[in-house]
Specification:
With 185 residues, the protein is α/β, with parallel strands linked by helices. It has helices spanning 5-13, 47-52, 59-70, 96-113, 123-130, 136-139, 157-162, 166-183, and strands spanning 31-32, 38-42, 79-82, 117-121, 144-146, 149-154. It is 44% helix and 14% strand. Bound molecules: uracil.
């Protein structure tokens, strides 16, 4: 375990553990509040994120911000990161070995931020954080509690851009999150 998020971020910046490092413009570590009660985990940077070095700044990020606003949260009140910290070519899903190579950074982020709630955005986040046996369609909208953290799996915002019908479920899931957040001191 590392002692600070800064230390982890500096390691990520120099990371060459998988082939994704070869094509990156920037590593994308995290955004938001390092002592947030709630953390969001996505899949990996897209083109906009790779350019700016900040997660969720593109189209999916705009939708994410709207969703946060909908439950009364600002970016500054959450901590947000991804399974992989470098952009997969053409925005493909990260390969298992890429996710595995990167996962130790995320584990350290979770321990150091110490959130009460973690929202898992999409299958890549869900499967890599909680296990391959889970799937968004079967698990979304229900809490999964592990080691004192409440995990809420839901759709990735990019999936909502492809299929508008998922929006209703997504909003419902976020309402559950909002209620729980209000119960936490
Ligand atoms: N999609 C993700 O999963 N993460 C980002 O940072 C941007 C888009």
């Amino acid at each position: 375990m590392y002692n600070s998020l800064e230390e982890v971020e500096n390691l990520v910046k120099r990371c060459t553990k998988c082939a994704l490092c070869k094509n990156r413009t920037n590593t994308v570590f995290a955004d938001g509040n390092e002592s947030a009660k709630i953390m969001f985990i996505g899949e990996g940077p897209g083109a906009d994120e790779d350019r700016e070095g900040v997660p969720f700044v593109g189209k999916a990020g705009k939708l994410m911000n709207e969703a946060l606003k909908g439950i009364g949260l600002k970016r500054e009140e959450i901590y947000i990161s991804n399974i992989v910290k470098c952009r997969p070519p053409g925005n493909r899903t990260p390969f298992k070995e890429e996710a595995m190579a990167c996962l130790d950074y995320l584990r350290n982020q979770v321990v150091l931020v110490n959130p009460k709630i973690v929202v898992l955005l999409g299958n890549t986040a869900l499967k890599n954080v909680l296990g391959e046996e889970y799937s968004i369609t079967a698990s979304r909208g229900r809490w999964i509690e592990k080691k004192g953290i409440k995990y809420m799996p839901t759709f990735h915002p990019a999936a909502l851009l492809r299929d508008e019908t998922k929006k209703i479920d997504f909003w419902q899931d976020l309402e559950i999150v909002k209620e729980e957040l209000e119960n936490i001191d």
